[in-house]
Design goal:
By secondary structure, this protein is α+β, with helices and mostly antiparallel strands. It has helices at 2-24, 34-40, 82-86, 92-99, 111-118, 161-168; strands at residues 44-53, 58-60, 65-71, 77-81, 132-137, 151-152, 158-159. The protein is built from six helices and seven strands; from the N terminus they run H-H-E-E-E-E-H-H-H-E-E-E-H. Strands 1, 2, 3, 4 and 5 form a five-stranded antiparallel sheet that branches. Strands 6-7 form a two-stranded antiparallel sheet. This is DUF333 domain-containing protein. Keywords: Signal.
């Protein structure tokens, strides 16, 4: 009798565990790559390379990064690193975008670079404020009109410095990313 009760208990526990696991599975598979997540949110992923802006002369740098760009009907855009958008946990870039910390009063220099630095990120490509650059998508012309400004944070997350600055001021460029991050971003 004890063996029978034990067997029934084990079978019941196994069935309950299987049902719980099945219920926890999403109804449709989530995209498996940052580029796929980007596309599922309406963005366009691409490979971008960094360029140092030496006063009108762009110098290519090593490395590359997959970025996700959202473009609105008015042609405004916002660019975010695809792995920042796809991260399972909140990133510093996502927290800054969603929480919208206050803009600094009377910034000196580029307002988006100052805001990024106030948040603990950087847009600089060197030790001096004049050391600037950006990211250009593979296949696009290598000129300053095609540079994407990025605010890079210590956790490796990155988002458009101007897009972040405008969003804090209540202006959406490209798309509102607040509901597009894979991670749940907690309120401040």
């Amino acid at each position: 009798m004890r063996a029978r009760v034990l067997a029934v208990t084990l079978v019941t526990a196994a069935v309950a565990a299987a049902a719980t696991q099945a219920a926890a599975q999403p109804s449709k598979p989530l995209p498996r790559t940052p580029a796929a997540w980007c596309a599922s949110q309406g963005g366009v992923a691409g490979t971008y390379r960094p360029f140092y802006d030496a006063g009108g002369r762009l110098s290519p740098l090593g490395g590359q990064r997959e970025l996700c760009e959202f473009t609105a009907a008015d042609t405004s855009r916002i660019t975010v690193a695809a792995d920042t958008l796809d991260a399972d946990l909140p990133t510093l870039a996502a927290l800054a975008y969603v929480r919208k910390p206050a803009l600094p009063q009377h910034p000196q220099g580029n307002p988006s670079a100052v805001y990024c630095a106030n948040l603990g990120g950087t847009t600089q490509f060197g030790n001096h404020k004049s050391d600037v650059g950006g990211w250009i998508k593979d296949g696009e012309p290598r000129d300053s009109d095609h540079l994407r400004d990025m605010c890079l944070f210590a956790d490796g997350s990155a988002i458009s410095a101007w897009g972040l600055t405008y969003h804090t001021g209540g202006v959406i460029r490209g798309a509102d990313l607040a509901g597009k991050f894979r991670a749940t971003i907690p309120a401040a």
